[in-house]
């Protein structure tokens, strides 16, 4: 169980950078132009989240709560994990299917709009043009 780092929000916007040393499990997912080679889908219902060739792979250390926790649970008590690799888009209209769930501090969590499973990613409200979808929380398909 990872410690929740959501309660430690600072005024500094978390940084992200293009992932240069791509882990072996992600190499087959990146096209020559650095974009996603396969479509990005919900791992539960397979609903399309992002089309291929729309997102860049970036490194960003971010806490994501585990899916399906108690609805009445306090945000600072959420259990989760720190995720380090994300698909990044700069326009919410790039998404084919995404919803926004709970906002904690300045972090708005992304979920599948069809089955409402999430969070699959984050958007920091201080940088509203940056959306991050965890490579670990979605499925990649042709």
UniProtKB/TrEMBL annotation:
GO terms for biological process: post-Golgi vesicle-mediated transport; protein transport; small GTPase-mediated signal transduction. Pfam families: Mss4 (PF04421). SUPFAM superfamilies: Mss4-like (SSF51316). Gene3D superfamilies: Metal Binding Protein, Guanine Nucleotide Exchange Factor, Chain A (2.170.150.10). Keywords: Guanine-nucleotide releasing factor, Protein transport, Transport. One of its GO terms (molecular function) is zinc ion binding. It comes from the Eukaryota. PROSITE patterns: MSS4. InterPro entries: Mss4, Mss4-like_sf, Mss4/transl-control_tumour. GO terms for cellular component: cytosol; membrane. This is DgyrCDS5218. It comes from Dimorphilus gyrociliatus. The lineage of its organism: Eukaryota, Metazoa, Spiralia, Lophotrochozoa, Annelida.
């Amino acid at each position: 169980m990872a410690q929740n780092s959501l309660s430690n929000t600072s005024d500094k916007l978390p940084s992200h950078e293009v992932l240069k040393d791509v882990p072996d499990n992600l190499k087959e997912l990146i096209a020559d132009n650095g974009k996603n080679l396969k479509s990005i889908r919900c791992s539960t219902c397979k609903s399309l989240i992002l089309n291929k060739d729309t997102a860049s792979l970036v490194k960003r250390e971010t806490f994501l709560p585990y899916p399906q926790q108690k609805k009445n649970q306090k945000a600072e008590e959420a259990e989760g994990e720190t995720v380090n690799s994300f698909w990044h888009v700069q326009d919410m209209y790039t998404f084919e299917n995404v919803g926004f769930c709970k906002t904690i501090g300045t972090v708005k969590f992304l979920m599948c709009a069809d089955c409402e499973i999430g969070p699959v990613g984050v958007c920091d409200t201080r940088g509203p043009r940056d959306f991050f979808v965890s490579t670990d929380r979605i499925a990649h398909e042709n």
